[in-house]
Batch of 2 targets.
Target 1
Amino acid sequence: MTDPDGPSGTATAVPEPPEKAAGTRGRRRALRHPLARFLLRRVLIAVLLAWGITVVTFVLTNLVPGDPATANLGQRALGDPAIVAQWRQDHGLDKPLPQQYLIHLGGMLQGDLGVSQQSHRPVSQDLAETVPATLELAGAAIVVSLILGVAFGVVAALRRDRLPDHVLRVLSLIGISVPTFWLALVAFYVFFYRLQITPGSGRIDPGLQAPPPVTGLATVDSALAGQWDVFASAVGHLLTPALVLALYTIGLLTRFTRSAVLEVLGQDYVRAARAKGLPGRVILFRYVLRSALVPIITVAGLAFGSLLSGTVLVEAIFAWPGVGQYAYKSATTLDLPAVMGVGLVVGGVYLVINLIVDVLYGVIDPRVRLQ
Amino acid sequence: MATRSQTAALLVVGALALAACSAGGVKPSSAPQSGAKTLVIDTSFDLKTADPGRTYEPTGLFVGKAVYETLLTFDGADVTKPVPALAESYELSEDGKVLTLKLKKGATFADGSPLTADDVVFSLTRVRDMKGTPSFLLDGVEIAKTDDTTITLTSKAPNPALPYILPNPALGVINSKVAKEHGATTDAGDKAEQYLNTASAGSGPYTIESFNLSSQVVLRANPKYYGAKPAYDRVVIRNVEAATQKLNVQRGDSQVALNLSGDQVTGMPANLQVKKTASANVIFLLANQDSSVSKTTPNAKFVEALRKGVDYAGLLELAGEGSTQAPGIIPSQLLGALPQDQAAKRDVEGAKAALAASGLSNPTVKLEFPSELTVNGLSFQPLAERIQANLKEVGITVDLAPAPVTTALDNYRNGKEELGLWYWGPDYPDPSDYLAFLPGKLVGLRAGWKDGADKAVSAAGDKAATTIGDEARKAAYADVQTKLNASGPFIPLIQPSQNIVTAASVTGLEYHPVWTVDLADLGAK
């Protein structure tokens, strides 16, 4: 018996053992599953995008009219060709550009993001310290945004053209319009300096001993270590920058939720539910919000991206040691490995968020579920 | 049963209470020790490493000074006379080529092991031969151990600057045994930096508790320090933007703010101490002498018009109280600095006359400067704008060309700027550092001033470089600067003020041109 799909030149095909054949068939079936195909497609796109990010960051960093050696060495050292040559050799800048790129790419494929020219440490080590700080800040901000933004949007829609609606619309407009860096400065001045109700800059009080790093999130690590005073300090330090960062997203979500809820409220099935005498709470949560959630989730996914870019300035003002500050410093000193590392991480976060949003569409709305 | 609004209110109150507890400075159980004195210092980091042999940034030198000790040091802010540190005495030979240092007895590293002459030789050789940023400090210097307590440093040419170079924290002595175990070598293959970024291998009054390049460095008093015990048990140095530094120190969240501008320290509350000292950074204008770069700026009369056209008093006003005019390129703190009465003064008519004598009619020049760089909190943009307005009155049109620092530095370094606005801070507090401004030297070339372009200035520089003895050196460097001011392409402008704000409880703080602050000098009341 020959296998029609077997490679040409195969004289006799050896039949697969039954259990192996069943395994192969199982894998093939699994790959034919729409969700598996969807995920596989997403992973392939992610790989392509990651490669694109490396190309763009490499080209842009090398197009900038400036020399990394100038940005990293002192004035005197720059006057000594031996020191400059040693520095270039240490950082692989003595090689032709295509070779430099291939070395970076080869390293990345093996999980090595290179060594930062600024910190002289592996970029992955720098990112392991800075990324959790930013994720903690952005994560807190997005949670606050989702809770407040959706709640405000629903209230505004249910009280359409009445006082709460007018007030919330004005507030959301302010949230969208006010520049984040200005808001951060004002919030720090008012709450920390004037009212003295929030703690100062950084992630915890300087007099406290940081908890042993497990997740890199100060709140979680302090709770895991049972250091409750540090936990209280970490939550306190997180509040103001997270709220400042969240304000834009709250404004955005309020407006989108309001319009989405208003649209659903006018649908026949909502009227029918009302006519059946269902309680208002049931109508809101089962009929209205569920339908309105699709556009809300789309906006929330996009908003998370804007939160990441907003962290650069907020981190600077609140002395928050996150990836935003690291990215800024790396970009201004033409630290290529660090810039590429940050690019990959931010790109990766976007891809993951988009994937989550796509999966959530299917969970919320059966009409968009994959067949 | 609580309603939802009551629950929400409880949550909000709880969150505020957490923030308030944290803000109110509740005595923490995770505080390192009860009763331990902690000092919090806010500064803008430019930190790259804690390895003394690779350190060259202000924050790094500041940390290095606390953790490592050098053979010589300076007493407080006085940089005119090196004094013993790890060396109990030193002597420079009459020809200025051999510096002999006698080691102090009883010095120990933080692990308790004794500090030896071998550690000194290894540390200095490592700095010289690793080809890191501070390697130039010991370029051409032979380091040898004569006996267990004597070190000799031999230079091929007279090197009277060496005693002023040795206090640089980059030349801190490391525990060679520990460092070698972690990859330290005396060549470019050295691998000890990673270890030295996480642990102390020094003999200074503090050790490293934690070191994070982007957020904070925590130092702890060295329990085995053989000298006077420092006043603070723990020092937290945080990376904070200047605007936030101001609020932190005013609120009491930190006790020292290092990077405030003149405007920011105006109107500080009476319970804070404000120290305004002219920094050792000299901001200057350079007029390129290379005719392939500019047809205008090599003209000597044009340079004279620039020198007379600038309103120095106006620039000082911008820089704020504590700033001072720079009469020469050597800052006021250093040996050989010119007295204030030799500082240039504005003379608009004289500038117009010089411009007329130059033969240039309504010249237009491009002024390049780093757009985002600040020196002691002072930005270059307002200075450039003021110079532009000053020179407009004289008849010179200045086109401002700000650029990001990496771009601007490239042009400056390659000698491509027609007119440049830059600053120079001392690598070591000796006037010989400023010989870089002579024709054919590092900064001279950046102004297109090639070797042999001004033989009188070069001769004066050669003489100053080999002169021995403080008084003779003072006169020699004054002569160099007078000649440089008369015919050179540089126009020294100002030394901006270094403004340091401290809580009333902090005592003994002195601004130092090399390491900013010596933590060992700080006291508490």
Target 2
Amino acid sequence: MSKKKYSKELFLSMYEDMVRIRKFEIKLTECFMKGMLAGNIHTCVGQEATIVGTCYALEKRDFITATHRGHGHCIAKGAKTDKMMAELFGKVTGYCRGKGGSMHVADLDLGILGANGIVGAGIPIATGSGLTSKIKGTDEVTLSFFGDAASNQGTFHESINMASAWKLPVVYLCENNQYGVSVNIKSVTNTESIAVRAKAYNIPGVTCDGNDVLAVFETVQEAVAHARDKKGPSIVECVTYRMRGHYEGDPASYRSKEVTEEWAKKDPIKAFGEKLLEMDVTQEELDAIDAAMDAEIEAAMQFALDSPYPDVSEVTLDVYASDNERSVAR
Amino acid sequence: MSKLSMSKAIREGLYEEMLRDENVIVVGEDMGTMGNPFGITLGFLDEFGPNRVIETPISESSFTGMSVGAAMRGIRPVVELMYVDFIGVAMDPIMNQAAKMRYMTGGQVNVPMVLRAPIGAGRRNAGQHSQCLEPLFTHIPGLKVVAPSTPADAKGLIKAAVRDDDPVIFLEHKLLYAIKDEMPEGEYVIPLGKANVVREGKDVTIITWSRQVLFAKEAAEELAKEGIDVEVIDLRTLVPLDWEAIKASVSKTHNVVVVQEGYKRSGFAGEISSQIMEELFDELDSPVYRVAGLNVVPPFSPPLEDAFFPNPQDIIAGVKKVLEV
């Protein structure tokens, strides 16, 4: 860490968001096991430092695109856990009136341009948001979250090439959790890192410890400042590990237990908690955050359960902004 | 009245919209100095500057996806695919992003973009530069689809497409670009979803769009010499479909031929045919008949290409089959 001074309140807030995301995800796994949740659930357990460190480097007016593993991205960008949970339960009180579900949470007011069910599809959308800021002459930065596997989509190359050519204010944030479903990135990519590809686009590229929230925070801050100063895009790669399967129900038997156990020792929340205790934070303060998050997530789930489903008449609503009825009818 | 070609008419419509609304931008290959291969954006770079005339690398997937992101932020991009055939590398941002964004976000966000794409055979462009592909777009909920047949319509419809808050696919037949026709005076917009009865008749209805409207009119004039009175409907917009216009005409003539240039199998003509069978069966004196392109790869060799898509003689044969004359 640099010598920059950060407040205790900031650190506790970051810790709280990491715990909030973890408990949100664990609650989902429990609900899924009980058969309460429909569809696919991709959790980001183990990746909280990358997510929180990144979003804390952004301003409220900045934009993100999230991924199919996007609950954490949205929460860290300001989404409320009750409306998130309601969305995942398909309820009308959710962020998207229950029509998007786990992979499509969006809130434009919070700068969340949507999670995305297509790997790599958020990268050009973020690039277009960056283009918009350039056209309008405003100073928002757009950050695109994507995984290591998405870095092998054509959209990665095409988008970063354009963003570099036109100096767009975009940060390309690769959450390298090392697996695209079952495939290890090393078995399909022959470079030492993802960030090294930045050289090909003549932009900055840096790799950092994605389980160290402060390292991520500082690294992304630099990339954001670079973008905001109209110096163009950069690639930040955060090396982390997906502690659970690709989705709930995936036993992840394609990975070695030993490696997963090694990463468990590097749990980002545990590590940050220990660091905070070395500063002037007490165990009581951490315990209080833990308890408060338990209560919040429980209440969020209750809110979701108590909320109604959308009326069936909504099935044909909002396909089109104009002439909807006629355009849906035939 | 002045005359303009369709390419000039589209250029004029886009130019007026860019003057009217600074959020309108054009995006695509060769949009700058060259002004696109058909001259659609000639002079735009000088007039509107590089912030609004986005000349892209050959990266159809990402410049289309980028336009979706810009549209979500309030920009109104008019994206050009140099040929509709290139949609193969740009389908995800259209099919999974632009088309679905409003619905998936519960109505939070619109994607007010236009995808312009030249279509059609007859220029000896062979297999990968000659398709129409309307059904790839009409099949996907969330997209509107427009395919004009005249310069006047093209200008009015492109203006409506730019102003529309939904993603609009705007299909321009390459062999219509150079054909000149009279233009209305003053500013005008033609609403999406409004068909045009381009020839009134009482014996049979031909429903079609784009270049085949010209062939249908030609066929109708020939048939008139034989005493067959043909009504020709130019749909102009495929989604939303002007069902009222179809219904009124079918209820009058009781015989229908649907004509399209593109492949017959799973084409939009089949869709129209089904809807008429389902809802207007009692009005019909004969089964609805389709005249359409062959289910083959667009060939290069001129005699083969000429045999690939319908011409006025094929339409005449179709009408005679329906009327059993």
